Known about the structure:
Helix content of chain B: 40-55%
Distance between the termini of chain B: 96 Å
Helix content of chain A: 25-40%
Oligomer: heterodimer
Radius of gyration of chain B: 43 Å
Shape of chain A: globular
Number of helices of chain B: 18
Strand content of chain B: 5-15%
Amino acid sequence: MHPLEEHYLDMTRRRFFGTAAKTLTAGMGTLALASLLGTGPGDGGSPLATAPGGGLMLPRGPQFAPKAKRVIYMHMEGAPSQIDLFDHKPGLRQRFDQDLPDSIRQGQRLTGMTSDQKRFPVAPSIFKFTKYRNNMDGAWISELMPHTGSVAHELCFIHSMHTEAINHEPGITFFQTGNQQPGRPSFGSWVSYGLGSANANLPTFVVLITQGFGNMQALSSRFWGSGFLPSEHQGCRLRNSGDPVLFLKDPQGVTRQDRRRMLDLVGELNQIEAEKSLDPEVRTRIAQYEMAHRMQMSVPELTDFSDEDAETLEMYGPEVTRPGSFAASCLLARRLSERGVRFVQLYMRGWDQHNNLPGEIRVQSKAVDQPQAALIKDLRRRGLLDETLLLWAGEFGRTVYSQGTLTHENYGRDHHPRCFTVWLAGGGIKPGISYGKTDEYSYNIVQNPVEAHDLHATMLRLLGMEHTKLSYRHQGRDFRLTDVFGKVIPDLMV
Amino acid sequence: MESLIQFFGRLHPMVLHAPIGLLIGLVALEAMAVAGRRPLDPRIRSILAWLAAISAVFSAGAGLVLSLEDSYDASAVQLHQWLGIGVAAGCAAAAVMQQAGWTGAYRTVLVLAAAAIVPAGHFGAGMTHGAGFLTAPFARHTPVAAPVSPLSGEVVAASHYAAVIAPIFERRCVGCHGPSRQKGGLSLHTPDAITKGGKDGGVLVAGDPGASEMVRRLTLPVGDEDHMPPESKAQPTPQEVRAIEDWIKAGASFDAAGEPAVEKGAARAASGPASADPVAIRAMRDALVHVEPVQQGSNLFFVDFSAVASRLSEAEIVRFLEPVREQVAELSLARSKAGDELMRLAAKMPNLTRLNVSGTDISDAGVAALAGHQRLSELVLTLDHLTDAAAASLAGMPALKRVYTWNSGMSEESLAGLRAHEVMVDTGEAQVAKPLDAETEVTLTRTAPAPVAALAADALKPVNTVCPVSGQPVDPRYLVVYKGHVIGFCCPKCPSDFWADPDKFEAKLH
């Protein structure tokens, strides 16, 4: 076929309706041609027009008055042991080295990691717990996290989380995207899609990763990926060392004006392509270039801690000046929230303590305890905590029985999806409560089970969106973060 | 009877196709006959001519009856009517003439009748589809106003009838409710006509979409017989319907761009302020100020200057906020160059409930400017340079519920009075959750008894293998517990025999 012919045929009917429908998202239906081919970026009416801050202008914003305007999600990758941190089971102290009764285990399948063990001896926590005053009858928190204990009156513990995933990849995928199989957008992407950005100079969804200590599992970038949503909603990872964003600085000899002229020209070329192909990814590309240009100014200002006073820095602990530490990430999270970034996700790696748990968890906890408490205090005194929703969670829990040798000083724990503990704070969450109960072995849930879908539904409600209404049409059906599950839990909300 | 007559009249749009097809077919056949120098078979000619005549007369009759329905504009009907009657008369005459053998006259009249179909049909279509129907694709329209989504916050101001509402009516309604036709006696193409309404009365109540007949019909399910536009016609988009609702709510004004309906106090809906000036909103967004409706469909906004805090001067911020001061519900000026002038502007924002001026250049005078504000309930004054005098002003805010004063220069003592008024004051002294109880040591022992096991699988095994009553083998479904032992039976009837005299059977078990 003649190349020109082929080129004109490129705009096939399928592509026209397919990409155009994708651009306009579920609910827009068919549009008249006139309004599709907008008169340009300044035309506010055309759905394909880019908003001044970049990005596609889709109906965005909270569906009803929100309690929270943004989220900080601290994901403890590897699955922190709830028995040693938050799920206080003093009765286990008299059951040291006893076999886990069948009535408790109820025939649960063993993982590949412990299936060759002959025995499953109960390993009580060797850490001392303290009961901190909260708005119920106190929160028991172990000696590993005294700072977190000091803000127990702000925290809402959910002891009865459960999941079906047994390993990290599917477990984290499930917690982030609502499904164990990959391919779906992450929580932050859904929030970006539903609410949009509040600060056009910074990405809507920012990811910060802290390397932990000991056994660390891999983190895939699709945990903060946008799945089938337009890729402008993916998380932007800020690096720990060197430039927070690679290649953000102009090379030597290139001035900001040169850069602007280059972007204008590239933008014009992309605009032609966008109008021809109606591919939303081209619009995304235009938006990303503009965003990068603005980030050249905003990111250095963001990561420069010199405008923080000494008392604040001290509150986060000595590690705050080390780039990449959890303390630095927490401070950065507060700064990002201050600047209107909708979704900040912190990953703390290294909680996967199959062996040598007491030693490893001490180091892990020390790294996170003071900073996370400081984050809460910092947000509180700046008047931001009530509109910022915090979540601290792992992907599952850990077993009450010891993996590997059990001694009076040492034990390990395997993965345990049947119950684990997470906590929330701020943003419309009832402060100072504990929700849900596990049995005395911290093995099964006896009251108020909560799964990730319910957590997502509740958090979306606090952000002002009904989880059943925040959807995107893909492959012929309306997908949502909560898939076909999820119920809002009113007891968690103010 | 009347409905039967009406039904007959309504057959016209359907039946008229018959004489058209027949007439044109007959003309074509006659043309071929002339070209081939052979006359058309007289039987065919006769059948077709008479069929055409009958159907044309029938159609014209139905058309006359239909024109009696009062929804048609008399002048528009005239031309079509007379041409249609002409076609029918021509058909009838042609039929008679060909019957009489006057072939020449017959052919002439036939062609004339066929030619008359064209203008007759054109005017007829103009009555159903609107006068400019044929030429519309070539006409240079002003670009159709894009659907306005209140979700983006660009709510239509009351005065945009001409820019937004009129085009919607033009597109969706005027075909049947306009210059060429007024179904139900209603026209929607001029402000006077809209206000006048139709034969059932007015179609809108200014300021109250809920009571407006137009909105009622627009929002009915599409299949409902009262729904407008009729199911077979193009339907307005949800955005267009919302635009109409918003326009009615804001007072259904036809004025050229002018003051927002805020001035027309009576017409304003009771809930919430009027819509903000979209130009002002656009200006803010173009400057990267974040403007977000508090919720979908609301006219109140959350405005955040974070993105541009360091760049905009106070005067520029004032210029942005002044036109929308009625609609600002939450405002964040943190780390900006805001000063007392902005505080004075904030004092004039009637719907402001939350204000964040952390890290700005405001002074005590600025805080004093807010005294008496009726709605402000949350105030963030952290990292400001204030003195205790500001604390005194805070006491004068009747609606204040929370204030954040960390590092604001106000002393603890000066704020103590506020707490007495049930204002939550957060001075930044970290509230600490006190320990209530603490484990002092951990001793690991093995002394606890094993938990009660769930009933073992063989707990319900019977002690016998044959039924004590019948001697048949035991069916494990039929068990009783007697003196602590589980006894099995062969069938459901035996247990009752057993209970009649348990001792007798018990002996059999051992």
